[in-house]
Amino acid sequence: MNKLLYLVALFFAAVQVQAATLPGDWAKWTAVKTPLMEAGGALPGCGADVSSLPPIYQETVKVYCGVKPGGPGKVGILVRPEAMTAYAARNGKFPDGANLILHLKDIKAVFLTTHQGGKPSYSVHTEEGKDVTAASGPLAASACVTCHTGYQAFCKGGQCGAKK
Ligand code: HEC
Asked: Could you tell me if 19 and 116 are in contact, meaning their C-beta atoms sit under 8 angstroms apart?
């Protein structure tokens, strides 16, 4: 490999590692209440009637209902204290680093949104912090982007929910 290519590869490898680090103190971040919590604090299963929910929530149920029989179950949203101002203001002005978590409590998975220069990136972890982001399917970073960046009118700077 030529030297430049090698440096480029190294750069992307470094970014990758940084984007996928779950801080050890994540469980102590600030828990927030959002519309998802209002809906019972759990993601419904595939049989649920979600026709009254906003399209992005219907889509979320469609993507994740089958992860576990009966639905993925209990969820919690955690915000890094330093990111709380941006989260509450919903202005996308997130500090660099791991900022937002969707905790799928029943399946013990941590969905993480990390910002770098205001740009969001997505990863999936075990509660112990292991990066288990998939290459394809609903647990792939590309799936997160489809929703979190695709519904631009709904999500802001990678943040879809809002504090109630
Ligand atoms: C089909 C749509 C959809 C997909 C796919 C999706 N999300 Fe979300 N996500 C949402 C919605 C809607 C919320 C807001 C829920 C609420 O708080 O009411 C949310 C909330 C979150 C939150 C809490 C902070 C916020 O943005 O409100 C994180 C963190 C998160 N998702 C990460 C991920 C990751 C990582 C992936 C990919 C593995 C992913 N999401 C895939 C729709 C989606």
From this structure: yes
